[in-house]
Amino acid sequence: MESKPVYVEIDINTEMDKLWTATQTPNLHEKWDLRFSSITYLPKKGNNPQHFSYKRTLVFGKSIEGWGITIGSHDGKNGERTSSLHFGTDDVLSPIKEGRGYWKYLPNDNSITFLTQYDYDVNFGKFGQMVDRLIFRPLIGWGTALSFDVLKRWIEKEETPFSQYVRFFLGWMITFLVSFVWIYHGLIPKLIFKHPDEVFMLTNVVPLSYDVAYWIVMFAGISEIILGVLFLLYRNKRVLFRLQIIIFPLLTITAIMADPSTLTQPFNPLTFNLSLFVLSIAGFVLTKDLPTASSCKRKR
Fold it and tell me: What residues form the membrane-spanning segments (predicted)?
């Protein structure tokens, strides 16, 4: 099965020259495009195409370096502009071997439709094609779309790409952590191992029989797992963080009332829930109006 080219499109409320400068100037382009750590134009010879080199820094300081050629730019009718590229790399770690694509700028009444389409050959034969189709191509398409939204917000709202990416990745780190905590505490102590302290804390606060308290704990475990999954799937994360800001103080008070001696234990309910309470406030602040790949069209 042949993979489809990557296609991303977004409308940006700006002027053509401003958008062209932000996307065609290397030191500006590398600020907002998640796919590149640096872009360097090489000395141009006469009327030959513009050659450039690019770098993407990976973990542990490892980088993938590649080359690119601006095949040409074209001014079309009604103020349209197009920029075509040829790119590739000889780095054996890169999933991409060589490819071609273009950027197109289509003026509207009060905005510019900025779009790209590109395709590439992959390394590692049939295995590389499978990995590309299942993992890398969706990932680089998502990264392209996220970058386009960062560019849009930079131009329209003047929030720098750096601050947008800091908020984006910190917000998601907190989201993944909180999701893991809810799923873990719902699944491990409540559903799988059925730790007796879970029932003990409940019966110390509310006069219930063991059987009734047991089923309430089981239900609480399922609810915690659902909440953890919601953190991953529900788009409006601020609603969930706001909920946590309310419930963590209540959970802390309940746990201390059930067994005050826990305050003398390491990683006790006071310090644990207080940490999650502060993280919830941070998550609530950071996830306001985050850049998102979903703001882009991904198909023609």
Answer: 169-192, 212-233, 240-258, 270-290
Where does CATH 3.30.530.20 sit in the chain? Answer: 6-159
Residue pointed to by tokens 């601006």: 70
Q: Is 50 helix (H, G, I), strand (E, B) or coil?
A: strand
Q: How far is the C-alpha of 130 from the C-alpha of 281, rounded, in Å?
A: 41
Q: Render pLDDT for 224-258 as a digit per residue (tens, 0 to 9).
A: 999 999 999 999 999 999 999 999 999 999 889 88
Torsion 148-153-155-158 (CA) sign: negative
Q: What is the pTM of this model?
A: 0.89
CATH fold of 6-159, please? Alpha-D-Glucose-1,6-Bisphosphate; Chain A, domain 4 (3.30.530)
> What tokens appear for 140 in the block?
């680089």
Structural tokens at position 294: 């979903």
